[in-house]
Design goal:
Elements lengths: L6 H18 L3 H6 L4 H10 L23 H11 L14 H8 L4 H19 L3 H14 L4 H14 L4 H7 L7 H14 L3 H12 L8 H14 L3 H14 L4 H25 L4 H11 L4 H12 L14 H4 L18 H8 L6 H22 L3 H17 L3 H14 L4 H13 L3 H14 L4 H13 L3 H14 L4 H13 L3 H11 L7 H12 L3 H21 L1
């Protein structure tokens, strides 16, 4: 299995390209020929605000279909979504024997059946098939609706599966948790996943200030790391994860979390370097290194420009020596500063004792990047996290408008891990965007089978069936997508079109009106205008038509 050693730089370069496109709104032709702005690589590394994807829809107004959620959202889900909840779901579940004792109303045969079902759910959880585990617990509760212990287990499985209702599920059955402290920890972490940092801190601080009774040490340390990372303190989060790796050195999820935290620490130091000394040789070196893998000539120009600038701390550097100095301490004034050959985690610890300077910020960023790269490589030994890293590379290629590279990453990843719902979903997404509908149907169907809890997959598969002129099948999937995530307005747009195809104009109107905020192309408003005419509302049709034309003119003005 090939180690994804270039992942970090690949993601950095992806971030270097698209912000310039998003800001300048260049034409497609210009996007292919215009080189990326050098400063964007540093901006991406330093602050990481991945750009909103520029999503194109078909241009037929009435035939236009909703786009997918932005690449930014999908990146964030992969990079952070799997590193919020502790990677030991069994720490939070009632064991099979407890459920048997509490929930078996009949004889021994029923009790044994219950144990088998719970064991199947536990196996699914251990294999990271969280949606499958949630479905098993749901089936258990159909037969035993008063089994409160199974209700808690189902809530835990739904939280790990990423159900939009997970927070509500945990709250409603929190009193049934095996340990109060563990239950509140899971609830607080779920609040972080949902973006409610203030309430999460109120939930977590009493548990984490000193380890609460009944809370396993590994979960306590994990909670400390997540809270620090979500509070904008990646160095503190790294230190907690280092402590956790003493306990859990063979857990890929901890290495994956370390990779993300170290990358965030690199971004922070890069951002501070850019603010303190944007024209220094240290800043230019970091910019050039972020571009060097795919844009070597541009990286050389960045360093050449830096050679003409006075850094104030390192002087000028001839362009010819830039490559050799990129991995050396160069003109360091302090020989005790750790260099590139030292263990990156040890180097980071040492560098915290040095006063801030352009050189120290550079070295901290470099050490953090090396730590992130090695941590991600350790995580990639697990098929699950190897698939996630493949998906990150594919999304980076998508952001560079390189569909062939993205498809290649998905296919290689699926050859390594054919049961990855994430990779099937990503490949299906690309096929749908290219209007390769039958290929999209195959990949998205497999993703849905492997992870029935993903609302975006249900939406995209439903939209594919709609475009294959199967509105009844589409409607079933779009309803499921909205049951899983009522706020997925793109699914309402597609469902509105399904209702139109089935002749249900009132429901179509309700869905299209509700979905209007997600469209900026004018296509949805045009569809509404046609529908209002059909319903005998020329006043609303005229308003929608005007809005559609305004949106299209705005879009054309940006191109």
């Amino acid at each position: 299995m090939r180690v994804l050693k270039d992942l970090l730089v690949c993601v950095l370069v992806a971030g270097a390209v698209l912000p310039a496109v998003a800001q300048n709104q260049a034409s497609p032709k210009e996007q292919q020929t215009k080189p990326p702005a050098a400063a964007d690589a540093l901006e991406f590394l330093g602050s990481y605000s991945a750009p909103n994807a520029i999503m194109a829809t078909e241009t037929g107004h009435t035939s236009a279909h909703p786009p997918s959620p932005s690449t930014d959202r999908r990146l964030r889900q992969i990079e952070a979504g799997s590193t919020i909840l502790p990677p030991w779901p069994m720490d939070f579940l009632w064991p099979a024997k407890s459920l048997q004792a509490e929930c078996s109303a009949a004889g021994a045969a029923e009790g044994e059946s219950l144990v088998r079902e719970v064991q199947q759910a536990e196996s699914a959880l251990n294999e990271s098939r969280f949606g499958k585990a949630a479905a098993i617990f749901n089936e258990i509760l159909k037969e035993r609706s008063t089994c409160t212990l199974a209700e808690w287990n189902r809530a835990v499985a739904r939280a790990y599966a990423g159900f939009p209702s997970a927070l509500t599920d945990l709250l409603s059955t929190l009193s049934n948790a095996p340990e109060a402290a563990s239950g509140h920890l899971l609830l607080g972490l779920e609040r972080i996943a949902g973006g409610d940092a203030d309430e999460a801190r109120r939930e977590l601080l009493p548990l984490l200030h000193e380890r609460a009774p009944g809370l396993p040490e590994r979960d306590w340390v994990w909670g400390q790391a997540v809270l620090a990372g979500s509070s904008g303190a990646p160095a503190e989060a790294r230190q907690w994860l280092s402590r956790l790796l003493v306990l859990e050195s063979e857990t890929p999820a901890v290495w994956f979390a370390m990779g993300g935290v170290a990358l965030e620490e690199a971004r922070e130091n890069s951002r501070r370097l850019g603010e303190l000394a944007p024209e220094s040789i240290w800043n230019r070196k970091l910019e050039s290194e972020a571009l060097a893998v795919r844009y070597p000539s541009l990286a050389q120009r960045v360093m050449a420009k830096g050679a003409t600038s006075t850094s104030g701390d390192a002087g000028t550097v001839p362009p010819a020596s830039a490559a050799t100095q990129a991995n050396a301490k160069a003109s360091s004034a302090d020989e005790n500063i750790p260099g590139e050959t030292e263990n990156p985690e040890v180097a980071l610890q040492k560098l915290t004792a040095f006063p801030d300077s352009p050189e120290v910020f550079y070295l901290r960023a470099r050490a953090a990047l090396r730590l992130s790269q090695s941590a991600y490589a350790r995580a990639a030994l697990s098929p699950t996290y190897n698939a996630q890293l493949r998906a990150l590379r594919a999304l980076a290629a998508e952001q560079e408008h390189d569909e062939a590279a993205a498809i290649g990453e998905y296919r290689v990843g699926l050859a390594e891990n054919p049961r990855s719902a994430l990779l099937h979903a990503g490949l299906g997404h690309l096929y749908r965007a290219r209007s390769d509908l039958e290929l999209a149907r195959v990949e998205l169907s497999e993703a849905s089978r492997l992870d029935p809890s993903d609302p975006v997959v249900a939406f995209e598969l439903g939209d594919v069936y709609l475009r294959l002129t199967q509105p009844n099948r589409a409607l079933e999937l779009l309803n499921r997508a909205l049951e899983l995530d009522a706020g997925l307005l793109l699914a309402r747009w597609s469902r509105g079109k399904a209702y139109l195809a089935l002749g249900d104009t009132e429901r179509a109107r309700a869905d299209l009106e509700a979905a209007a905020p997600v469209d900026t192309t004018g296509d949805l408003q045009f569809q509404l205008a046609r529908l209002y005419q059909k319903l005998g509302r020329p006043d609303l049709a005229q308003q929608a038509q005007k809005h559609s034309e305004e949106q299209r003119k705005t879009k054309e003005g940006r191109q």
